[in-house]
Amino acid sequence: MNFARILRHFLTGRAVVRRLFPPTSLIAIEQAIKQSEISHMGEVCFAVEAALDTLPLLRDQPARERAVEVFSRLRVWDTEYNNGVLVYLLLADRDVEIIADRGINVKVSAEEWERICREMEMAFRQGHFESGVVAGISAVGSHLQKHFRAEEEPVESKNELPDTPIIL
């Protein structure tokens, strides 16, 4: 049992999320998602969670496992073209995970998603939360643009996932 991790999770609450992601940052992240989705047919969702609940924390649940749960709970997998991507931040661990639907995973390697996650985490260590998320969304969007390019003639496509950042 990692007592330092448990303490970090108990001390990281929603107030920390509000401090690191004030309304202006949430608007900037939402705009980054909207801008990204103009150039591709993919769906990007950003979710931030302050800390794990007690039971998962005591079971030492990794951020990756929690991200998969959130991917399912938010129904990111439920897009028409299987092209949803969740960018998940577990704030207490400063751990970023990217979970992509099967339509994207066959085209983008796990190593590439991991590289984007590590770059975001590096920005967070420097205290650049908003810019770290915006850069990560841009990097995800570059891959989606490559593999799910938007139509030349814009078709009225429905927005299947919310662009607004989700605070869990």
UniProtKB/TrEMBL annotation:
<dbReference type="Pfam" id="PF04536">
    <property type="entry name" value="TPM_phosphatase"/>
</dbReference>
<protein>
    <recommendedName>
        <fullName>TPM domain-containing protein</fullName>
    </recommendedName>
</protein>
<feature type="domain" description="TPM">
    <location>
        <begin position="23"/>
        <end position="141"/>
    </location>
</feature>
<dbReference type="InterPro" id="IPR007621">
    <property type="entry name" value="TPM_dom"/>
</dbReference>
